[in-house]
Amino acid sequence: MPEQHMSCWEFPPKVNSFGAWNKETGPLKFSLPLLQMQILVILAVIHTFHFVLKRLGLPMLVSEILAGMLLGGSGLGSIEGYSQIFINIESQNIIGILSILGYTLYMFISGVKMDMGMIGTTGKKALTVGIISLLAPLLLGMAAAVLCLKFWFPEADYLPFVAVTHSLTPFPVIASLLGDLNILNSELGRMALSSAIVSDLCSIFLTTITIVARTGDEKTLETAMVNVVSVAVFVLVVFYILRPAMFWVIKQTPEGRPVKNVFIYAIILGLFACGLCSNLFGQYVMFGAFIFGLAVPDGPPLGSALVEKLDTMVSIVLMPVFIATCAMRTNLFCDIEKRECEEILANFVVILVSFAAKMGACFVPLVYFCKMPRNDALALGLIMSAKGTVNIATQILLRDSGLVDSTIFTTMVIATTLNAAIVPFLVKKLYDPSRKYAGYQRRNIIHCKASAELRILACVHEQQTATSIINLLDFSNPTRDNPISIHILHLIELVGRATPLFISHDMQKTTVSNHSYSENVLLAMNRYQRNNGGAALVHVFTAISPPKLMHEDICTLALNKLAVFIIIPFHRKWNAGGSIESDEQPIRNLNCSVLDMAPCSIGILVDRGKLGRSSSQSVYIATIFLGGNDDRESLAYAKRMASSPNVNLTVVHFLPMKDIDNTTSEWETMLDDETLKDIKYGSLGFEQVNYIEKVVKDGPQTALIVRSMASQYNLIIVGRRYGIESPLTSGLTEWSEFPELGTLGDLLAASDLDSTASVLIVQQQRQL
Length: 768
Hints:
Elements: H1 31-53, H2 60-71, H3 80-86, H4 89-113, H5 117-121, H6 124-151, H7 159-165, H8 171-180, H9 187-218, H10 221-251, H11 261-280, H12 285-295, H13 302-327, H14 338-368, H15 374-384, H16 389-400, H17 406-430, E1 454-460, H18 463-475, E2 484-493, E3 501-504, H19 519-531, E4 536-545, H20 550-560, E5 565-569, E6 572-574, E7 580-583, H21 585-597, E8 601-606, E9 619-625, H22 629-642, E10 647-656, H23 666-680, E11 689-696, H24 699-709, E12 715-719, H25 742-748, E13 758-763
Parallel strand pairs: 1-2, 1-5, 2-4, 5-8, 9-10, 9-12, 10-11, 12-13
Antiparallel strand pairs: 3-4, 6-7, 8-13
Helix pairs in contact: 1-2, 1-4, 1-13, 2-13, 4-12, 4-13, 6-7, 6-9, 6-14, 8-9, 9-10, 9-15, 11-12, 14-15, 14-17, 15-17, 16-17, 18-19, 20-21, 22-23
């Protein structure tokens, strides 16, 4: 049974203080200043712990639990003066209500972020893992609990509840862990999310049945049946009345406009009403909030609007306070008798059996039936075994219900803390998502046969980017003899949902999806394909994921589609007048990640607005050649463009003066000469190709010539040449603003350059 305390309340309640200088009463004797002080101290201690522990790779949850232990009965709570002021009964009631409110909002947000549509598309592998990872630890954990009760510790009637608690796989915990590990949209991450959704929904069903059964045991069967019917009616009302009403709200919201505040307020009121209803039906208040959150359509405009308004306050303030107040109720240093030691040992036995069963349930079928690599299967097992916020909440509910005592609750919190600290570390050691991008085949333009299909993956963020890509593809001169296969990937930031989404529009029955994802991009690319009938084959995809993880979608698609060239837009955009319109740092970070991990050659397109042209208008393109892999790759792409009758190509070859030491090896020089041979001697077969040699003494002279020629062309193609030392660029690297563009690319993309010429910076495949 929970501990019983008698307390006296003073009416009217003292809420606001009369100031710190009042001699009779200090501010901490009033509820509002004390609550503010408690929140301030809790958050300060949490972030102090995390400032140190994050350097060891430990998650925020560990810092929150340690802060609670320090401020509670395991630490400062043993000091009488501190406990009477900071954690007295009255103040615990107030901050406890606030923390439960925070957890209720957290479960609502988790429901909003959960994509219910994933259940219908979940593969057999994820479905099997989701079900087995729940049933195996539940059955084996219960078996271990029964054996301990029968042969070892008959008084430990709480052990079945421990087994149930450690068999759960909460979806919010898994999504948070995958986000922290930056593998949310990796192949393993997507499978873990799908499995977690299945397992979590099964867990909710079993938990609801357990609560109803307990109600029938404690009260009457009639009361339990009324609760069952009430819960069923509540769920039906939420999904068949309230969910359609939310779709109506979306229809009333014009595309690109925010949801009206009156609808947001109504949904928040509905949240509290659903929490109240679930309490009336014998369920916890969080159940109603979570079910109501599931009914909210995830993503923009409604789901993202709710998450944007609530998530910051909940995740930064209320949830850390909730976890800390739960941990404050632990007691690490209480006097433990021999009997209690055996009790704790039995508790850990059940926890370890449940953990081992969950690991085995994930590992055995995946390795021996699905042929998954052992390290990946172990990593998935660890992910599905992860413990976090929801587990702590379940444990505190068991303690408050009197199902476990303070000692067992403390051991469960310790086990959760160890799990949260160790699992991320082990997953990082076992699973490296970047290793699959290592290329053992040559995937670049220069090794692509002249008559072979050119496979290009182009990334777009908005309609304007799609127009620039189309113009660049036009320069590539797609014909029936030299076709181009284009894979367009529309990148959208993940907002208002927990699960990333990857859509292949070729697989959809209709051209435009119900959610209007990539509608404008689809229309533009379909028009381009019709205009180049038979010469260009277009496939459109949409990836909705966090910006810091979008490179996974790009590299995975390039790998799967055997692309030889990736085109990504530069993060800076110019308007028609030539001034900078926007500067998106997340896109720059994305570009740097793709450059590091791309499984093929890659080009960054800097669009200054001069790529557009009519079908009969001549286009002037220049390629600046200094030598090296990247320059040879850029020249190979330029040669393909030169086959178009409307393209005038100029190759500018920079050479160092003869008296300057040239660090280029003889082998590299021979490769450069071989690449330039048909251009230099006019054997390429196209009259509109010009070759110019420029002899320079140093980098400043190179920069002067490059800047002077920038305004003469529509497009300039350069190699990235990152990290290559050369007398041709000496003294320029130190002044680079964007190292990812290379020396010349950075020079041509400079904001002070008076030019409207677009630039394509090319990097040849690195992963060989």
